[in-house]
């Protein structure tokens, strides 16, 4: 598998469903969040990303219609043959395209869920599906012990698809290390990792460095902390305050500084932009030109505090 060289990718978690936990969605998306409106917005965002050199796109079964939007875009963009696609299974979108849904997504890491969701992902994305992640693996997930699931994932791996997992929660480092010990027939099961890393929550860094050293592809998500490290929020945490101070000194946006801090990690293969608008995407891409002299992670939140705060963010 040949991978592109640009180190920023784009994820459609916030762009391809009407509600999410990122801020200022009313300003970014307006009041019209009908399916075709968000499809057109997502296609325009993908066009801008591709024109800027982005060649990795991250979607998931639970990101509304992200796989469908991406598949439609790829179908009419023959020049985008060099785009690498990663998707995720293990959550289902159940929000029914409503802003006020009581539940927007449901977690299921069972073998049955994999057997149900993979054909749906492959049916939309076909052979373009290069990486398939188990979505938001945590220490209590049955997927860590389910040998029947491991065998099914190994068969997918043998077919040529890279098999991996994403992580969430305060114990990401533990999960990365445990998951990367799993073997089937003497081969490591997982060779791709997608984890949250940002200046407010860098605790997974050492485990991600070990993963990269072992040969895994490491992808950073939530580099701007679901909007806390963007101009849309004035977060009072010391690390966020320091990031804004550095941004002012550099004449840059705080989102650019946060993205640049993630790009500075030598183990990061790709850092995802979760932009909803083209202007946000361009700001994130501007991080590639920043040279950060400061390590901003020394003021990070305790992981459990960070994740409790993230869990409390409202869907809008």
TrEMBL record:
Domain NADP-dependent oxidoreductase: residue ranges: 42-292
Domain of life: Bacteria
TM region(s), chain numbering: none
PANTHER family documented for this protein: D-THREO-ALDOSE 1-DEHYDROGENASE, NADP-DEPENDENT OXIDOREDUCTASE DOMAIN-CONTAINING PROTEIN
Protein name, per record: Aldo/keto reductase
Lineage start: Bacteria, Bacillati, Actinomycetota, Actinomycetes, Kineosporiales
């Amino acid at each position: 598998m040949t991978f592109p060289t640009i180190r920023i990718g784009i994820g459609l978690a916030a762009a391809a469903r009407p509600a999410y936990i990122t801020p200022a969605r009313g300003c970014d998306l307006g009041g019209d969040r009908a399916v075709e409106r968000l499809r057109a917005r997502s296609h325009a965002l993908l066009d801008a990303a591709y024109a800027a050199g982005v060649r990795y796109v991250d979607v998931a079964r639970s990101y509304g219609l992200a796989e469908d939007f991406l598949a439609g875009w790829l179908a009419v963009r023959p020049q985008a043959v060099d785009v690498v696609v990663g998707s995720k299974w293990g959550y289902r979108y159940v929000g029914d395209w409503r802003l006020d849904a009581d539940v927007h997504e449901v977690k299921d890491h069972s073998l049955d869920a994999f057997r149900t969701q993979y054909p749906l992902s492959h049916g939309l994305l076909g052979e373009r599906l290069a990486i398939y992640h188990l979505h938001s693996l945590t220490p209590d997930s049955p997927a860590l012990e389910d040998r029947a699931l491991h065998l099914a994932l190994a068969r997918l791996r043998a077919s040529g698809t890279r098999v991996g997992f994403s992580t969430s929660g305060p114990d990401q480092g533990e999960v990365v290390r445990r998951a990367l010990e799993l073997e089937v027939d003497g081969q490591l099961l997982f060779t791709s990792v997608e984890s949250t890393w940002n200046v407010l929550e860098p605790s997974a860094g050492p485990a991600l460095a070990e993963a990269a050293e072992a040969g895994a592809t490491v992808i950073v998500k939530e580099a701007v902390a679901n909007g806390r490290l963007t101009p849309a929020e004035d977060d009072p945490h010391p690390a966020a305050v320091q990031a804004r101070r550095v941004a002012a000194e550099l004449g840059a946006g705080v989102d650019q500084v946060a993205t640049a801090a993630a790009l500075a990690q030598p183990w990061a293969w790709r850092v995802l932009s979760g932009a909803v608008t083209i202007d946000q995407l361009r700001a994130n891409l501007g991080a590639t030109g920043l040279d950060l002299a400061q390590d901003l992670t020394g003021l990070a939140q305790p992981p459990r505090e960070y994740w409790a705060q993230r869990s409390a963010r409202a869907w809008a």
